[in-house]
Amino acid sequence: MNKGVVKTVIGCVAFMALLLGLLVHRILTPPDMTQQQMTEQGLFVYDVPRRFTDFTLKDFNGQPLTRQVFKDRWTLVFFGYTSCPDVCPTTLASIANFNKLLKAADAKAADKLQVLFISVDTFRDTPDKIKAYVQYFNPSYLGATGEYTELFNLAHQLNIAFAYQPGKDGQIDVSHSGEIALINPQGDFHGFFKSPPDPQKMLKTYRSMLLNWRHP
Predict the structure, then answer these.
(1) Which of 57, 100, 142, 200 could form a disulfide with 146 if both were Cys (CB 3.0 to 4.6 A apart)?
(2) Residue 69 gets which letter from DSSP?
(3) Which of the four pLDDT bands, split at 50, 70 and 90, describes residue 3?
(4) Across 112-134, average pLDDT
(5) What radius of gyration do the chain's Cα atoms show?
(6) The domain that contains 39 carries what CATH number?
């Protein structure tokens, strides 16, 4: 009788361990999604990544920033401005949450991902303001701005629109689209996350994209 109980207990423990192992495996294994499924979940990936021309901006330390910043790392690029009342802070907060989720699920992938915030407010955003703004969300985030022509050409090639309009008291209002450009380690425009981003969906689609990506 005692032996039967022992065997039953051992069997139950083994079964529970199996279920736990399957659960952990499911959590740690990236979902293998089709391109259509990724699009439906908010990440559009181009069939062929798009090459864009070189550019020269200035980072928040006053140093030149060129396409070399993308070399050997995946990069999320978001265009906005520091006094943006809604889209910018919510989007950067979502990216920060996505970063935390990715680090917990795949620390190696998180280490290979960087975030670049580009201010299109050439009137008010100084390097110091940009640095304080982006590092509020994450100390590792990069920030930059530049001359209008450089900003416009880069944004246009990454399918980002922005414009200036007269505001109150002689101020300039800035409007911009909220997509997040995804640049691959070869420095090509790989795709984009639609606006508004959802951190959980970003995690699933990004990990699936990495799973299906083939290095040239």
Answers:
(1) 57
(2) G
(3) low
(4) 96
(5) 22
(6) 3.40.30.10
